Structures are given as C-alpha cells and as structure tokens.
C-alpha cells in the first residue's frame, strides 16, 4: 500500500494548531520562512514516499536476521538509509557547530512523522540516534562532543539506549551491569535486552548509551552512571578502530516491527567493553532522561504516524471495495463501502483522532523549542513546564490512539484486514509496541499525576486549562453552529479536566494507591481535551480563512468538519472519565489478588 505524506494537513497543524509563528518571531536566521519550510517538507515527503515506504511491507516479511554474529537488515534498507544521510535529514534539528542545520524541533518533528509513517521499523534507527545526539549535546564533555557528535549528527554513526536488563525492566534501579575504572576509561560488563538497532549493517559504527553501576555506588536509581560504549573504539583521528568487547547474543522474535533488529547485547565477555563516563558518577539516570524525554515525544509521534498509515490504507480500500447497495438508495447496484454510514463513521473517527494527536505532538515540540530558544528566562521556564506536562500525555494518549486506529483500519477491511497480504494487520502489529516501550503508558499516567501535577500542585495543568478556555471563548465568538457546538463541547471537556485535576492533586497526597488507579483514565481525559483544544485552534484559523475567501476553501471546510466531528464523537467522552479517574480507583482494590 502506497503512502502519501499529508503535507497540507501537517503544515496546517504546524502553523495553526502548534503556533509556529511564535518560533518564527525568534528566527533570526530565516530558517522558517514559508519558502524554506515548503522545500523541506516537500523534499522529505518525496524521500518518505518513494524510497522508504515501498520497503515497509517487504521489510516486515524479510525481517532483520543475525548471521554469524552480524546483523543484516532487509534488502533495500542500506540504500534507503544512505539516501536519508545524504539528504542531511538526521542533522535537521542539531547545532550548526556539530554539523547540524539548526532547524527547530517542531519542523524536525513534522518531518519525522513522515519517516515513521513510511516505515516504523526503519525510522526507529534515526529516532534513537536523535535522542542519543540530544543527550550528548546536553551532557557530554567537550572532547566527547568533538569525538562523536559530528558523525552522529550526520547520521553516519547511529546511537542506542541501553537501560533494560532481564531482571530490570521498568525498575531501572535494579540493573546489575558493572563499570570498573581502568585508568581514564571504564570496563563495562553486563547484559542488556530490548536494544533497538543494537547492531546493524547501515553504518560503520554504533554508539551505545549504557547505564551501569560503578564500585561503591548507592543502591537503586541513585547509584547509576552513564557511559558511551562504541561498537568500534574511536581513535584520535576520529575514525573507528579496534572492535570493542561487545556482541549481539540474539535478536528478539517480536509481534511486529520485524525489520527493526531488537538485540540482546552482551558487554565484556573478554575482560570488559571500553566505555567513557558521561558527566559525573551516579547521575546517569538524570542524564538519560534527556534521551528518554526526547524518545517519549518521538514515540507519541509514532502513534500518530502509524495511525495515519493505517487510515490511508483503510480509506483507499473503502473507496475501491464494492459491496452492497447504498442505504436509502433506489438503485440496487452495489457501491463502494465508503458509502455505508458505519464505514464512514470509522474513517472519520480515524481521521479526526489523527488530526488531534498530530496537533498535540506538534504543539509539544514547539513548546520544547520555545523552552530552549526564548530570550526571556522566565518564559523559557514556563514553556519547559508545559513540555514536561505534555510529554506523558503525547506519549501515552497518542500511542493508545495508534493501536485503536490501526485496529479500526483492520475492521474497515473486514475479513481482508485479518489476512497478512493486505498489510492492514502489519500496522496493527507494529503499533502494539508503542504503548509499552519508553515507559509503559501506566508509567506515563503515574508520571503525569505524581510528578507533573505533584510538583506544582497542578499549576502547570491549570495554566493549560486556562489557555484552552481562552481558545474556547475565541471560537464561540465566531458565528455559525459549528463554532458554537465545538466551543460548547470544549468547555464541557475543560470543566471535566479541571475537576479531575483538582481531585487528583488532593488524592495523590491522601490516597496514593487510589490516585495511581485513576491515573490512566485521567491521562486519557487530558489527551481527549488537549486534542479538542488544538482542533479548536485549527477551527478558528479555518473560520478566519473561510471568511477571507481563499482558494483552499474545501481544505478549510474539511478542517472545520474534523473539529466538529471530534467534538461530537471524541470530546463528548470527556465528562464520563471524571468519575473513573476520581472514584473508580477505589474498586481496583475491591478483590483480593487471587480473586481477580
């Protein structure tokens, strides 16, 4: 199934929902002028459509394989990755002093969605490289930056994240990998699992970010340090040299993303892999959170991307599949199934959920840029608080949505969706990992409730709600039934979110277990309302554009219709989640462990 990047919808989300004009006002280098942005998005769309997307289904069938200790990616993978690096795409958001192009993360996020939709398995490699690069930019020494960043920014070396061990999954503090000093370097010994692109044949070197314990370190997460452990040791000339003491033990046999090599890695079979300490000892988890938060935003975007791919395939099938007469029509001839009301409902549900989640992900990326680029320190802090609040919502809500929409895509296909040859099942299989990795969605919900609400007693959430109320009021000021209906649904959703937020702030102190039991419904409520907020911003822009009488009236009417459908079918669910978030947690404890 072909993939056509929805560039117009992406551009609209970036400009109108995420508020790109706020970054454009700070753009001294002219990176964000309309012509440059059009060129970037257009070229990215061509690479995604023509070079990467055709590999997705064949790559799923072929998978990556371990061949005599060497990981081989599917046919075509190396050529596509070479084109990706040659186009400078990995360098897009990074600092020019390391070879980057200095573009905002908001633009990189828009482009990354195209890679993820084209092939989730392919795009995981640059996703992790981007996170590792961001980590080293923030915490690496000057020598480490000089040694690794130019090649990683370029994409000719890739990066990984090494946290999980057989006995230490989400409880990272239980890890046992050891790091022993050896002069000015360290010897790493241990095993890591679930290492995405832990080895491959796409580049000449792989740079692993490895968490390990040093001698005498405190127990738990307080005693974790971070190390750079390259596949090939890097010489003074910056070139790869001797092979380091690390190897791939096996590749995981997974439900989906078969083309992405998920490795079991062994470090130190022959005396210890050579590593470089990043920053100070025992601050490794703190440093790693830079990469993890980057990855969590990126994984949330993956939920949007796989949903878009599933939607495009479902829509194409519904337009071509002819079956049954149209309800209410006199003509008995069968029609394309897109004429049947329930199929149309599913397609509109898919489309509008995607538009809401896309707008929210782009908004979070824009806030990230403002937290780094705004000249005022207080403004940077406020934008960082908004980023911190939104990241668990984007990660969890968008990935749950990705699974839901991919499943709906199978449903639109009917029986053919359950058959692998159509490709609809692949999207569903691929999507299923997204709510699990980079911190399960239950962990994201707890993070939202206990850390993000807890640290400021809900002040950042209340600021977001107040801003959204202003948007609802601005929308209600426009004439027409659509504006009034969307604004009314959004106000009701905001009332629900406000009530739940205040209750959750109180619950986390009074009854932490009940707060934890209600955290997932609360996060879903937050996501639904935040999605309604960004679509309302889009509706305001669409109404203003329609009043001006532009040539793209059909496109703007579709954006308004999406916002109205979302308000009626998605946002209307928000009030019902308040009780589940606040009161439903009590019943989680109603049965004994062996009675559940």
Total of helices = 19
Main CATH class of the domain at 7-154: Mainly Alpha
Low-confidence stretches: none
Helix content: 55-70%
Task: State the gist of this model.
The protein has 596 residues and is of the alpha+beta class. The chain has helices spanning 7-17, 21-24, 34-52, 56-62, 77-86, 105-118, 120-139, 142-154, 284-320, 341-373, 377-413, 424-431, 441-453, 459-476, 481-510, 512-548, 553-569, 574-582, 585-588; strands at residues 65-67, 70-72, 157-162, 178-182, 185-196, 205-212, 225-230, 232-234, 240-243, 246-251, 262-267, 273-277, 322-325, 334-336.
Give structural attributes.
single chain, alpha+beta, 19 helices, Butyryl-CoA Dehydrogenase, subunit A, domain 2, globular, two-stranded antiparallel ribbon, eight-stranded mixed beta sheet, Butyryl-Coa Dehydrogenase, subunit A, domain 1, 596 residues, 14 strands
What would your notes on this structure say?
The chain has helices spanning 7-17, 21-24, 34-52, 56-62, 77-86, 105-118, 120-139, 142-154, 284-320, 341-373, 377-413, 424-431, 441-453, 459-476, 481-510, 512-548, 553-569, 574-582, 585-588; strands spanning 65-67, 70-72, 157-162, 178-182, 185-196, 205-212, 225-230, 232-234, 240-243, 246-251, 262-267, 273-277, 322-325, 334-336. The model has no long low-confidence stretch (mean pLDDT 96). Helix 10 (341-373) runs antiparallel to helix 11 (377-413) and helix 15 packs parallel to helix 18 (574-582). With 596 residues, it is an alpha+beta fold.
């Amino acid at each position: 199934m072909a993939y056509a990047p929805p560039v117009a919808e992406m551009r609209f989300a970036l400009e109108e929902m995420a508020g790109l004009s706020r970054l454009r006002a700070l753009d001294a280098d002219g990176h964000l002028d309309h012509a440059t942005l059009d060129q970037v998005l257009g070229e990215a769309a061509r690479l995604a459509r023509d070079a990467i997307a055709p590999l997705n289904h064949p790559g799923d069938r072929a998978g990556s394989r371990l061949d005599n200790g060497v990981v081989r990616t599917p046919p075509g993978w190396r050529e596509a990755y070479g084109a990706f690096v040659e186009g400078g795409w990995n360098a897009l958001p990074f600092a020019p002093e390391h070879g980057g192009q200095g573009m905002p993360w908001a633009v990189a996020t828009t482009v990354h969605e195209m890679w993820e939709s084209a092939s989730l398995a392919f795009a995981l490699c640059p996703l992790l490289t981007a996170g590792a690069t961001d980590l080293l930019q923030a915490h690496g020494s000057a020598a480490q930056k000089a040694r690794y960043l130019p090649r990683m920014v370029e994409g000719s070396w890739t990066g990984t994240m090494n946290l999980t061990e057989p006995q230490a999954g989400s409880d990272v503090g239980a890890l046992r990998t050891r790091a022993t000093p050896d002069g000015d370097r360290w010897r790493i010994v241990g095993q890591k699992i679930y290492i995405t692109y832990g080895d491959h044949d796409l580049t000449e070197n792989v740079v692993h970010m490895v968490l390990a314990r040093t001698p005498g370190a405190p127990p738990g997460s307080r005693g974790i340090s971070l190390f750079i452990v390259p596949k090939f040791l890097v010489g003074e000339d910056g070139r790869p040299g001797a092979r380091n003491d690390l190897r791939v033990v096996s590749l995981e046999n997974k439900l989906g993303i078969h083309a992405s090599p998920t490795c079991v890695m062994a470090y130190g079979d022959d005396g210890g892999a050579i590593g470089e300490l990043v920053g100070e000892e025992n601050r490794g988890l703190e440093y790693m959170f830079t990469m993890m938060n980057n990855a969590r935003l990126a994984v949330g975007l993956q939920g949007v991307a796989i949903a878009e791919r599933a939607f495009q395939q479902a829509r194409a099938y519904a337009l071509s599949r002819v079956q049954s007469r149209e309800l209410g029509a006199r003509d008995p001839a069968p029609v394309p199934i897109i004429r049947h009301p329930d199929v149309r409902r599913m397609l509109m549900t898919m489309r509008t959920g995607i538009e809401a989640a896309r707008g929210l992900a782009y908004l979070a990326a824009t806030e990230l840029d403002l937290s780094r680029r705004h000249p005022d320190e207080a403004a940077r802090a406020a934008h960082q608080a908004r980023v911190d609040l939104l990241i668990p919502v984007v990660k969890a809500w968008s990935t749950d949505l990705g699974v839901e929409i991919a499943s709906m895509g199978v449903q639109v296909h009917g029986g053919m969706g359950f058959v692998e040859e159509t490709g609809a099942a692949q999207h569903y299989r691929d999507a299923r990992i997204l709510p699990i990795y980079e911190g399960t969605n239950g962990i994201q919900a707890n993070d939202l409730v206990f850390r993000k609400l807890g640290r400021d007693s809900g002040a950042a959430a209340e600021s977001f709600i107040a801003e959204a109320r202003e948007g609802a009021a601005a929308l209600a000021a426009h004439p027409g039934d659509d504006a009034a209906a969307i604004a009314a649904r959004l106000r009701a959703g905001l009332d629900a979110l406000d009530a739940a937020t205040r209750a959750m702030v109180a619950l986390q102190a009074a009854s932490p277990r009940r707060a934890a039991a209600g955290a997932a419904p609360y996060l879903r409520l937050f996501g639904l309302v935040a999605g309604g907020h960004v679509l309302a911003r889009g509706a305001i822009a669409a109404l203003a554009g329609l009043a001006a009488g532009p040539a793209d009236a059909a496109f703007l009417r579709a954006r308004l219709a999406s916002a109205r459908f979302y308000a009626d079918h998605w946002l209307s669910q928000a009030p019902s989640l308040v009780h589940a978030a606040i009161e439903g947690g009590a019943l989680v404890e109603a049965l004994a462990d062996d009675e559940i």
